[in-house]
Amino acid sequence: MTKSICSFNRIKLQDLNTAINKTRNLSYLKENLKSLAFRSIVPKPRVSEEIITQKKRNKPNFLLRSDSHIVQPITDKNFLFPLLNRFQNILKDLYITMEDIKPPSRVKGMKILQKGEFDTTYLVPAVKIENERIKKFLQENKKYMLKQRAVKPIIDLENGEKLILLNPSSKEYLQDLQLEYHNLELHYENFNHLDIFQAILPDHLDRVSSYSSIGHILHLNLNEDTSEYKHLIGQVLLDKIPYAKTVVNKQNVINNTYRFFEMEILAGEENFITKTKEHGCIYELDFSKVYWNPRLSTEHQRLVSELSPTDILYDVFAGIGPFAIPAAKKGCTVLANDLNPESYRWLENNVKINKTKISTYNLDGRDFIKTALKSHLIDIWKTNNKTNIHVAMNLPALAIEFLDEFVGLFSDYSTTLPVGEMPVIHVYGFGITEQDVLTSVISKLPGLQLDDLQLRTVRNVAPNKNMFLIKFKLLKSILFRSDFEEPPTKKKLCSN
Length: 496
Ligand SMILES: C[S@@+](CC[C@H](N)C(=O)[O-])C[C@H]1O[C@@H](n2cnc3c(N)ncnc32)[C@H](O)[C@@H]1O
Known about the structure:
The protein has 14 helices and 20 strands. By secondary structure, it is α/β, with parallel strands linked by helices. The chain has four domains: 2-83, no CATH class; 105-190, Alpha-Beta Plaits; 205-271, CATH 3.30.300.110; 293-479, Vaccinia Virus protein VP39 (Rossmann fold, 3-Layer(aba) Sandwich), CATH 3.40.50. Bound molecules: S-adenosylmethionine.
């Protein structure tokens, strides 16, 4: 290979000298110098990307400086194409790969979307196939065809033949073909959002690769560094993600009571009422007024998978129902509560549209435990002491605080009440380490030992902030304890 590049360079130097003298069109040179000549002919590692413009007798003259010598590149189209065909065996190895097909480097740092700036051209390998052979060719070679967004890889030629554009990365396959070179024109429409963000955003910024979808809403969590680019990012996502109609950025301000975020519209319509699906259930919601996090989808499924159809679920911080509704669909008896009137409204709506039966409450979590949960549990224990009882408490910033509500919950019944299965608590908490949350749980429930607790890390929420699940069976001694101090009666409105 080294040998052929050397001989190629010798031939090229002569021919290129002739070619450069033929060229008089400055804008053509500017447009095509890199994509036609530099990218295709000159081996990349040998040539620096520096382009020197010189004025010679008032005529433009373009030079590429290589490590060892100055190479004058081919810049005349009429000269270039025959030459390309002549050197095609060498070119096969020097050719661009799919990774090289990107938006032009001039878009780096763009803050206001100018779609025209994405226009560019690349030479891609192609083969001419007669009409009679096309069907068979496609059957056998489909996987080698060029796959670029919104590019048709089969072009009708005037003589009835077809030109098939090929994937330039398939080097071995290309070796055996009689290749043509097609000047592929690409525009904004031909790049996906990841290509575009990579091309636009300065290299030191975090990649914008992830967003959450809630129905038609795309939800981003951009940091300060990207703030100059945020509207452009929103517009690109709106253009590129087919179902997106609204793109929002989560503000740092969190609504302290009901755990939903303030949001800023980056692009699209201001409509937050949306519909989403999770594990076969439908949820309608107003994303600007209630809590919803698609990243908890696995957690919702995991908890519900632990329930049997005869079990009972008390969901203290139910939101719009992602534990409660699938549990009820499974056959469980469910009591679901949320303090946010909007969550409660959408919870009721979702119970209905999923055709489930759930008792819903709009209470503070402590009141729910003291009233609805307590009286329902008493009835269950009276009639069936074998039923499994689960309590879901997903308000990670504060739920552990609510655990003391179980201390002495049944102290007024201690002698007479028939007692069945003890409730299994699934409580979520934030902490840096596992020890943080385990210690907080133990401190709330006298008599509970570390060995009684199971812990699982749900997800890393931020640097130094993890979400944990702590699961344990309540002790009878805790529920019936009588020598305890009443938890403060003052209602707490909660942040997460
Ligand atoms: C983190 S969200 C979880 C919602 C739902 N379980 C889920 O997984 O999507 C916590 C919920 O608790 C509700 N909440 C906050 N403080 C509350 C309180 N004191 N009593 C009852 N619900 C509360 C919020 O409105 C919110 O819907």
